[in-house]
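Justification of computing resources. Each target in the renewal requires a structure prediction run like the one illustrated here; the chain below, 144 residues long, is used simply to show the kind of job we budget for.
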Amino acid sequence: MRTRTHSFVAVSTALPGLEVRIARVYVTVQDMDRAVGFYENLLGAEVNYREGRDLAEFNAGSFCLELLNRDKIGEDTKIGNNCVVVLDVPRKEDVDRAYDFIKALGNHDTEIFEIPIKKASLRGFQFHDTEGNLLELYYYDWKR
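Resulting C-alpha cells:
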C-alpha cells in the first residue's frame, strides 16, 4: 500500500480508483475529564462535541479524534495502550518544540530519536496520554 501526503492529510491509494483517508480515531478512556484536559492542551483545541462522561470529540484537522468511555461502548476494551495516535509536524525543528511542551506537561518518560528508513528519515518521540495510550510525534524527511 502506498500513501501520499498532501497538506498533512494521509491519503491511501491501496484501493484502485478510491482515495481513502482516516476519518476518525477512537481512544477509550477511564477518566473523561482528565483525558479531555490532556488533549485540549496537546492539540490546542477545545472539544467540539461532548456527551458528559461518555464521549468527547475533537476536530483534529483532517480527522476526528473521539474519546470514549469504555463502560459506555459495551465492549471489552483495554484502557491505555489500546491505540497509537500518530501526529506529524511540518518542520524538523518542530519536534524539539513539541518535545519541550510534552515534557512541561509532566511527561518525562520519553526521548527524541531519529530513524533512517528506505523512503524517509524520521525524527520524533513517543509519549503517553493520561490514560496510558501511546502517542507518537514525527517529522518525516521524505527522500525524493
